[in-house]
Write a structure and sequence with these properties.
145 residues, mainly alpha, 69% helix, elongated
Length: 145
């Protein structure tokens, strides 16, 4: 049996991925199925996943337990990475893609494909994912108890 904590974490991730597609339809007026399985975008599914896990651990095990502290620390590391390291990697990919598109000489095979630019998150996207994750984690854990 899947533990409720794991179920809620995965549920928060799935909801965030689905919301990305809905937001894409509303903003760009087109259905882009890749949003169901890709990283980056609004809201952060990484943040939703780890925050739902931490929140549901806090509700089920107690916020005074070491496992809750571990989950919170893990959540902060993942959210920091999403908003900083991965965001910078995406910005670098934009520059490299521009260089490759404007390269007048022979393009080495190494640069045959464009680099993925949407891999990180803005702080707002991370915060939205965190809020979604906490809501799913807390409400889900309370309903499953």
């Amino acid at each position: 049996m899947v533990t409720p904590i794991l179920f809620l974490a995965v549920a928060a991730w799935a909801i965030a991925q689905a919301l990305k597609m809905v937001i894409s339809v509303v903003v760009y007026r087109k259905v882009d199925w890749s949003y169901l399985f890709t990283g980056g975008g609004m809201p952060s599914s990484h943040s939703a996943l780890v925050c739902a896990c931490a929140a549901s651990i806090g509700v089920t095990e107690g916020i005074d337990q070491p496992i809750f502290a571990l989950a919170v620390v893990l959540a902060f590391i993942v959210m920091y990475d999403a908003a900083n390291v991965r965001k910078e990697t995406g910005e670098q990919a934009k520059i490299l893609n521009y260089i490759m598109k404007n390269w007048d000489e022979y393009r080495p095979e190494l640069f045959a494909e464009e680099l993925k630019e949407l891999i990180g998150h803005t702080p707002l996207q991370v915060a939205a994912g965190a809020v979604l994750g906490v809501l799913v984690g807390v409400l889900g854990a309370l309903l499953l108890l």
